[in-house]
Design a protein that fits this description.
By secondary structure, the chain is mainly α. The protein has a domain at 242-329: Tetratricopeptide repeat domain (Serine Threonine Protein Phosphatase 5, Tetratricopeptide repeat). It contains 17 helices and no strands. It has helices at residues 2-40, 44-57, 62-74, 78-91, 96-112, 115-135, 140-152, 161-174, 176-189, 193-206, 210-222, 226-240, 243-256, 260-272, 282-295, 299-312, 317-327. Helix 13 (243-256) runs antiparallel to helix 14, helix 13 packs parallel to helix 15 (282-295) and helix 15 runs antiparallel to helix 16 (299-312). It is globular and about 65 Å long.
Length: 329
């Protein structure tokens, strides 16, 4: 009878503990949701503050730790991000995405330090990405990271176009579009423009996403082919209807002094339909308009446009330089 009473008391105690812990668990989950929303809204400091409290109270909560690392990463606080992602790798060493994020943060740190310190980090970057690739044969982002890593590293520290192409082929097996874009990247980096163009075009034919068109148009810009760049942007605009493309067409027209009437029209449309999602501030559109009017020798219009640009973003030096050039017309 005594044992029976003890058992009842123990069961009651367990239920009591569960009832106490449930609100705490719910509170934690609620705050994680809040942190995720803040990250989506790009309120990274606020998200960091929320997650710092969660991780302090629940150091075993891997989701909170991951988001904490993400919040640091968005702010380019790479050492702090590395600390959080390392916890994840240690807690779940068979989770590919944790190794991928850890390697990515290490890689970003390597880009910000001097080359001697970077050399001491590269081995860990490579190991993290290779581990992630081995753990998950379908992890696309890891294979993209390896494509870029092996292309950018000098040969003396392990750079290899052959290995980069190996992971591009693995990408192609998972996603033809990613494979074609990866090969376009490799051949563009290796200064083989014909092959780069071929694969970027294949990516458009296969997938036709906004990114596919963007890669090809950027390739044309970097290879001094502005007419082809504009044509690609127009094809993308016809399919995707992105206001941001109006700015891009106007920018190319202004920079290369081509198709100026079309460039002016696109920039006016960009300003008229502008929203924060378009990315580039209206001031830059006015700057590009000023460039176009300068090419057309329309000094008054050029001055009006550049004055608007300066009033909107007075700290941008290139705007002030442009105004000086216009005044000399």
């Amino acid at each position: 009878m005594k044992d029976y009473i003890c058992e009842i008391n123990l069961n009651s105690m367990r239920k009591f503990i569960v009832l106490i812990m449930l609100p705490l668990f719910g509170f934690s989950q609620h705050n994680i949701g809040k942190a995720e929303a803040l990250l989506m809204q790009k309120k990274y400091v606020s998200a960091e503050n929320v997650l710092q409290l969660i991780v302090k109270e629940h150091p075993e909560n891997l989701k909170a730790i991951e988001l904490f690392g993400d919040a640091y990463g968005y702010q380019q606080k790479w050492d702090d991000a590395i600390t959080q992602y390392k916890k994840l790798v240690q807690a779940k060493p068979l989770e590919a995405n944790y190794h991928y994020k850890y390697g990515g943060a290490l890689g970003m740190k390597a880009l910000q330090v001097n080359k001697f310190i970077a050399l001491t980090i590269i081995g860990d970057v490579k190991e993290a990405f290779l581990t992630a690739a081995k753990l998950d044969a379908k992890h696309i982002n890891t294979r993209w990271a390896l494509v870029e890593l092996y292309m950018q590293l000098p040969v003396v520290v392990g750079g290899s176009q052959t290995k980069s192409l190996q992971y591009a082929n693995e990408l192609e097996a998972l996603s033809k579009v990613d494979g074609y874009l990866a090969k376009g990247y490799i051949y563009e980096y290796d200064d083989k423009p014909e092959l780069a163009e071929k694969y970027y075009k294949l990516a458009i034919t296969e997938g036709g996403s906004f990114t596919c068109y963007q890669k090809l148009s950027s390739f044309y810009e970097s290879n001094n082919a502005p007419e082809k760049a504009v044509a690609t942007m127009e094809a993308s605009q016809e399919k995707h209807q992105r206001n941001a493309l109006h700015y891009q067409i106007g920018k190319v027209a202004a920079e290369y002094n081509i198709q100026l009437a079309k460039g002016e029209q696109c920039l006016q449309k960009y300003i008229e339909n502008y929203s924060a999602e378009d990315g580039v501030p209206i001031a830059w559109a006015n700057y590009r308009l000023a460039q176009i009017y300068k090419h057309q020798k329309q000094k008054e219009k050029a001055l009006q446009a550049i004055v608007l640009a300066i009033s909107e973003l007075p700290e941008i030096e290139v705007f002030k330089e442009e105004k000086l050039e216009i005044n000399q017309l």
